[in-house]
Design a protein that fits this description.
InterPro entries: Dimeric_a/b-barrel (IPR011008), Tscrpt_reg_AsnC/Lrp_C (IPR019887). The protein is α+β, with helices and mostly antiparallel strands. Helix content is 25%, strand content 38%. β2 and β3 form a beta hairpin.
Length: 80
């Protein structure tokens, strides 16, 4: 499994609804947080090693009603 972090910019007033949709509909979701700053939400997803990250983001995340923009971070190694 590989972890990715995605920040979401949402339409005004839609961040909580977007978070609810992500949690309810995407089994890849590990965690999602509301944030301050340029983006409204930060989510962590675990994808299978063979998964196409670009396809996941463009077809599963950017198409959610209320999502204006995303910023994706790909991770390499987890430290504990």
């Amino acid at each position: 499994m590989k972890a990715i972090f995605v920040q979401f910019k949402c339409d005004p007033g839609e961040a909580y609804e977007v978070a609810d949709i992500v949690v309810r509909t995407l089994e890849e979701t590990s965690e999602i947080y509301s944030t301050s700053g340029h983006y409204d939400l930060l989510a962590k997803f675990y994808l299978p090693d063979e998964a196409d990250i670009g396809h996941f983001v463009t077809s599963q995340l950017q198409t959610i009603k209320g999502v204006k923009d995303t910023f994706t971070l790909v991770t390499f190694k987890a430290f504990s």
